[in-house]
C-alpha cells in the first residue's frame, strides 16, 4: 500500500482504540450504524444511550469533544433538509410556537437528525483513530474487491498531488499580479482548470508507465498482513453489542 498517509481527520494517539486492527474497527462501526438505523424512532431514550456509548469510545480514544463536534459540521446540509421536513410533509398537523407543523415531518426530522448524527460521529471516531493507510489495509483484509481498494488508494494519494498543483498554480497567478474579481475572472479560472486536468492526466500516465515498468500487472502486493486476536475482536465489538442490547430494549419496551 505504500508509505503512511496522514489526513486531517486523524488524531495521533496511543490509546487502546488506536491500537485495534483496522478491519475490526471497520466491522464494529458498520455494525453499530446498522443497529442505530434499526432502532425505532419513537425510542428517543435509546439514541441518548447511543450518544453516551460513543462518548465512552471518544474518552477511551482520548479524542476531545471539540475535535468531534467540529467535524460534525459536515452534516449541516442534512440538518437543513431535516428542518424543512415538518413544514413540507403532509398528514396530521400540530401547532408548535404558533407554527403549523406536520407530525410525520417532525418524526422524520428527528429520525434523520438522530441517526445521521450518530452515524457521522461514529465515522469521525473511526477516522480520528485510524490512518488512511490502515483503513485501506483493513478493507483489503475484509476481502473488498482489490480493484476498489486500489482506486481508493490512488484517489487518496493523488488528491493531495492535485491539491498541491492547484496551490502552485494559484501562487504563480498571484506572483504575476492576477486577482480574481467578478465574472471577468471566470475565463482565466476555466483555463487554469483545463491546464490542471491536462497536467493531472499526463502525470497519471507517467505514474502508470512507471508502475508497469516495475512489474505491475493489475494487483498491488500485500506488504503488511493485518491480523486480529479474539480479544481484539471482543474489544472492538463491545460498542455494537451494547448498542444491540439498547436496540432490543427499544423494540420491546
TrEMBL record:
One of its GO terms (biological process) is cobalt ion transport. The keyword Cell wall biogenesis/degradation does not apply. CDD domains: EcfT. The chain crosses the membrane at residues 43-60, 72-89, 109-130, 233-251. GO terms for cellular component: ATP-binding cassette (ABC) transporter complex. The keyword Membrane applies. PANTHER family: SLL0384 PROTEIN. Pfam families: CbiQ. It is a multi-pass membrane protein. This is Cobalt ECF transporter T component CbiQ. It is found in: Cell membrane. Keywords: Cell membrane, Membrane, Transmembrane, Transmembrane helix. It comes from the Bacteria. Its main location: membrane.
